[in-house]
Amino acid sequence: MGAAKTSVRRRRAVPWLVLGLWIAVLAFAAPFASKLGDVQRDRAVDYLPASADSTQAAKIEERLPGGEATEMVVVYHRDGGLTAADKATAAGQIDRIADAHTLTDEPAGVPSRDGTTLIYPVASTEPGADEKAREEMVLDVRDIAQGGDGLSVDVGGPEALDTDSSEIYDSLDGPLLYTALAVVALLLILIYRSPFLWLLPLLVAGLADYLSMGLAYGLNRWFGTPVSGQSSGIMTILVIGAGTDYALLLVARYREELRRIERPYDAMVAALRGCGPAVLASSGTVAAGLLCLLAADLNSSRGMGPLGALGVLCALVAMLTLLPALLVLLGRRVFWPLVPRYGSTPKVRRSLFSAMGSSAGRRPLTVLAGGAVLLGALALGTLNLPGTIKQEDSFTNKPEAVAAMETLAKAYPEQGTQPISVIAPTDRADAALADIRDTAGVESAERDRSGDGWTEISVLAAAPPESPGETRTIKDLRDRLDGSYVGGVSAEQIDLKATNASDTKVVVPLVLASVLLILIALLRSIVAPLLLVAAVVAVWGAALGIGGLVFGPVFGFEGTDPGLGLLSFVFLVALGVDYGIFLMHRMREEALKGAEPVAAALTALRTTGGVIASAGLVLAATFAVLINMPLVQLVELGFVIAVGVLLDTFLVRTYLVTSASVALRRKVWWPGRLSREPEPPMPPKEPELVTVSAH
Predict the structure, then answer these.
(1) How many CB atoms lie within 10 A of CB 195?
(2) Are 184 and 616 in contact (CB under 8 A)?
(3) Cβ count within 10 A of residue 63
């Protein structure tokens, strides 16, 4: 009797204890979560490859005298040609800028040959290295430099572009989170058909995101992990998307156990034992795949890895501790009006997944062949992917700095308008300057600042910025100038493309190996993990192919981000394997109970198909939120991942993988013990004849 009372008290105390611990943890994390925006950096150098020429040039430039200068260019333009009044307005505004800020040089206007444009370079060391102060100066210059009555005035240049990028990334946090939560809330209401239940996964996901923000700030402070607008936005998406997936699986299993077990606490324990290994393995594959990005040379990719893994782990902990505690405390009534009664049985309905299972069971090889042909045809769309996107085309809504760049390109076609920075050792600067001027494609070159053993040489190419001609000039300069660094905006774009290509060769094998090892450990098989990995790779190719069919013709994008292939691969492989784990783990569970291979596969599809479909819809919708963002790289990434998740959910995972499992039968578990035919039962022994002696 005493043991029973102790057990009851424990059932009542554990959920309250978990809830109290979460309140304490969130209270501790709150001050740090609010500071994450303070350490977020979105300047070009924060995204550049760590070892590239352009990165080294940018770091040295910052150490040179005046290296902390905030550099802009004020562009005055009138289509029919600037009037005398326009020029007077420009001169007056530049004087006001000089009065308001300490400039390094007196600005001198440079008119275009056609008389439509006048530019004033503006630079100041006044803000120093303070990023916020730099942005405030750019905004102040824009407040002073105003056009009107046909005169357009745009403030461009490196600092203006950094300011526009930072403002865009800063604006993502609120809209991204709220839009994602709204989309997930709508889907959960439709899935659960309950006025209360949908709130719990959403609330827990929001708290997990808050915790991840606090821990991300700690990673930055303690380990120097870079935090950018892109990486923090992806972290939020992963927390909400992956966390809701885990919640869907747990709640579905909990509902199932409530029909068998009377007490909610015991039902939750059984649910956690049943789906816990699959959820742990699922989060492990995502976290391991993302951590492989630490091997990347690109700063932005390397920073995204630990932040994404952190988000997934926070979602995992929240959904396996806080959500179960809340569900147990609220009891069965949280499912109202569809309350799972103890001892009841769910209505048996002819579902889509039963129909899919039937066709997979009858014609598995036909289904597999048809699916492979379809995925292969879709993957051919990658041949239609546009080339690398230019910096001015990377925004869906054109910011002012990009408008200034486009005006300069049209008004000064005779020369490059985006300087190339060459950083040469001071003792060889004169020889470097001579070599630069002798390089084909160089319009002009002037010696600039010197200090700390280095000299900056400002170079203008004859070809327009980011054109094939300018790219050849930059590569020729790097070939000729031994011991010097060639940087600048165009050089940075070249290095980004080259580094993404080399990172792909390193990270992709690491991701595949880490995911494969986790699957082998979970499924006790080699064939099943290979099947799942091959499936997600096929999904990635098909999703990227669909992107190639729509990015240019439908969205009107002029190019693709260099990191699209690598990042979409990491996310689709890591996240796509989730659903394979849910399906194959249940299949293995049925096989361990003694079900025949075909029956185990079809039962797993029937019992998990609805959950996988719901989870896939939620995850796809969460990443689809990125399509509304103002940056082309986020739109492209969100589109490819959302399409890939839908393909994986409704075609590959629930249909083709099931068909392959039916076709392979026990071989899918090779070399584990499930791959071997069960031994036939031993025949009953003949009764021994016993001779009884007459004695």
Answers:
(1) 10
(2) no
(3) 12
Q: Which token pair is 241?
A: 């998307």
Residues 664, 662: Cα–Cα separation, whole Å:
6
Angle between helices 84-100 and 131-144 (to 10 degrees): 150
Q: Is the pLDDT of residue 695 over 60?
A: no
Closest by CA position to 300, among listed 579, 613, 46: 46
Q: What SS3 state is found at 282?
A: helix
Rounded to an integer, what distance in angstroms lies between the CA atom of residue 468 and that of residue 241? 40
Q: 538: pLDDT confidence band, cut at 50, 70 and 90?
A: very high
d(CA 108, CA 100): 17
How far from 87 is each of 109, 118, 236, 400, CA to CA, in Å?
A: 9, 8, 48, 21
Query: Span 673-686, mean pLDDT?
Result: 58
Helices (H), 116-228: 131-144, 158-192, 199-223
* pLDDT score at 211: 94
CA angle 450, 455, 458 (to 5 degrees): 110
Q: Which two tokens stand for residue 494?
A: 């070249």
Q: Which two tokens stand for residue 150?
A: 């046909």
| Low-confidence winner among 16-30, 193-207, 414-428 (lowest mean pLDDT) | 414-428
Encode pLDDT of 5-20 as tens digits: 555 666 678 889 999 9
Contact between residue 600 and residue 674 where contact means Cβ atoms under 8 Å apart: no
Q: Specify the 3-state DSSP secondary structure of 453.
A: coil
Local structure of 363: helix, strand or coil: coil
**Cα-based distances in Å from 574 to 508, 519, 644, 652:** 11, 11, 12, 15
Q: Which amino acid is at 223?
A: F
Give exposure, 430-456, as e/b (b: 16+ Cβ within 10 Å).
Answer: eebbebbeebebbeebebbbeeeebbb
Cis omega before residue 337 (within 30°)? Answer: yes
481-515: per-residue pLDDT in tens?
A: 888 899 888 888 888 888 888 999 999 999 999 98
Q: What is the pLDDT of residues 335-390, one digit of tens each?
A: 888 888 877 776 655 555 566 656 666 778 888 888 889 999 999 999 998 888 87
